[in-house]
Here is the input.
Amino acid sequence: MAWTFLWAWGGGSALDSTKATALLATHEGPISRYFGLHKVPSPCLPTILIPTTAGTGSEMTSNAVLNDPETHSKMGTVSDYLYARLVLLDPELTLGLPPFYTVITGLDALVHGIESFVNINATDFTDALNIRAMRMLVENIREAYANGGNLKAREQMLYGAAMSGMAFSNTQNGIIHALGMSVPNEHHIPHGLMMAVCAPMGLTFNALAVPEKFAVIADILGSAPAGASVRDKARSAARGFMTLMDDLGIRQGLSHYGIQKDELRLIAEKAVAYKRLMDGNPRKGTADDLEKLLEEFF
Here is the structure.
């Protein structure tokens, strides 16, 4: 029997677009019919995915995230039919990635590990993947940024991104992605950069709900004070992520990226409505709560 495959290599946008193409090759459009969880009724055209960034983990996920011109935000379709038939991980394909894109894709992968780890749908299996992925990413991202030719660091980044992708396909992400994906598309902010900027918000907001897990994250980030209580360690996780951002040259605060204060309410409302992401978040919040959070980190 002859098979037709769609091949794709590139970053997360290229891989997600290929998944959407594979879906529409076998199902009637528009793609918006399939936004949400498990709305694809039958198999799609099989794909072979080859990432050239260590970031989204899209090659390993059942997700395809796309710009929705109707809502002016990013929307996702999630289906087991979107998993690739074959994935090739070759760190040499990431050697030419410039430092800035190495950083923002790597921080996106780290956010995946963090959000999946603390998600209410987490299991022992996803925890094992996420803890290992977070360690690999944190221990190698500075070296990959400073010396992009270090093949070992590139390999660890690529594998860490793939592992966190495997994990969050079983849990989904949370408030960080909900906030970042609710920023209006007209700002044209790269996805990984927006996830990095929103990460301290999510770390601050969620630490109260699952302090034991956030203490683990703080240990991985190297921010946990010696001899501190679990809750004090958990509260330090956001500071650890911000220190990492400083080391990697990523400015903190939404105002640096053209976002206006009068947009914060709409961002908060859209984020709360992201059920696919917020339903698994360990701490629930209202639009008012999220608006205050956005103002705090503006």
About this structure: The two ends are 56 Å apart (CA to CA).
